[in-house]
Design brief:
The protein is of the alpha+beta class. It contains seven helices and nine strands.
Length: about 300
């Protein structure tokens, strides 16, 4: 069964929890893909690169060591002893997939000797937990929009007595056939309408959703509009402050990665690199009198 059919069946069944889970997973897929495209890693094969991205998303950290043939190995780990700086001094590597000991040793490892710890955020936390805070809101908002759309499409419910049913069907058919005037010999009291007073809030929910997505993009260091629909309406100070925040987030992540990979290269003799795939967000300058906002500093 296709995803579309599943979605339609959930709407038809008013499966609120199912719809929310469906939309939430859709946003997880979208933002994990965007996160993966933020940085380009060099010196890893595709398997190690995928492993690194997954660990940094989930835990914000990974252990890098070198195997006997000189290739980098990316591992998950648990911290052992901590030094007086509050950083791990020893770690134990996690081997859930029965990898050989040449890849993932079972013995306790010494940090900055047997391998190197790298982080992606100055807080040393992963993205997953924080991202799911925003993604959960997006899933709920999309569910509300789906419900609101379904209610807007609800048909009129007309009540009448059985003797007038056919006349009522003809009356409705004429209305939908764009007749300029519709006549009926039915009495007013023979036509009753049940109104479904469902408010139209899709526009408000869409604006709310954009704001949540902008917050999530800022967390990941991804360029966004800061919640403004068009540049003529932007408050420059607010927008530039948002741009600074985006650059600070992405810059902090890049610095952490560069520092960690440099340690790995220096200590283990590897040749690992990382670079951003997009340019930093540029500030928007005030236009000259009579100009527009196309001038960028």
């Amino acid at each position: 069964m296709s995803v579309t059919k599943n979605y339609r069946k959930m709407v038809e069944a008013a499966d609120i929890n199912g719809l929310t889970a469906y939309f939430t997973q859709t946003y997880v897929n979208k933002y994990y893909d965007l996160y993966c495209q933020q940085y380009e890693y060099g010196g890893f094969d595709y398997r190690k690169r995928n492993r690194l991205r997954a660990l940094l998303w989930k835990r914000g950290t990974a252990w890098i060591r070198k195997n006997p043939i000189g290739d980098p190995v990316v591992c998950d780990y648990t911290a052992g002893q901590y030094n007086y700086d509050g950083l791990p001094e020893t770690v134990t590597l996690i081997n859930n997939r029965h990898a050989p000991e040449t890849e993932i040793p079972i013995s306790e490892q010494t940090v900055d000797k047997d391998g190197v710890i790298i982080w992606i955020r100055p807080s040393h936390k992963g993205f997953e937990e924080d991202a799911m805070f925003y993604i959960g809101k997006l899933g709920e908002a999309e569910t509300c929009i789906a419900i609101c759309l379904a209610l807007q499409k609800m048909p009129w419910i007309l009540t009448t007595d059985p003797m007038n049913a056919q006349k009522l069907k003809l009356l409705v058919k004429q209305i939908f056939s764009n007749y300029p005037v519709v006549y009926t010999d039915m009495a007013k009291e023979d036509i009753g309408m049940i109104e479904l007073n469902s408010p139209y809030v899709i526009d408000k929910l869409t604006e709310y959703k954009k704001g949540v997505e902008n917050d999530l993009k800022t967390l990941l260091g991804i360029d966004n509009q800061g919640g403004y629909l068009n540049r003529e309406q932007q408050n420059l100070d607010t927008t530039n402050s948002n741009n600074d925040e985006i650059n600070d987030m992405s810059g902090g992540q890049l610095s952490e990665l560069e520092e960690g990979l440099k340690r790995a290269n220096d200590i283990l003799g590897l040749h690992l690199t990382v670079k951003m795939t997009s340019k930093p967000v540029e500030q928007i300058s005030r236009p000259p009198e009579g100009g527009d906002y196309d001038e960028i500093l």
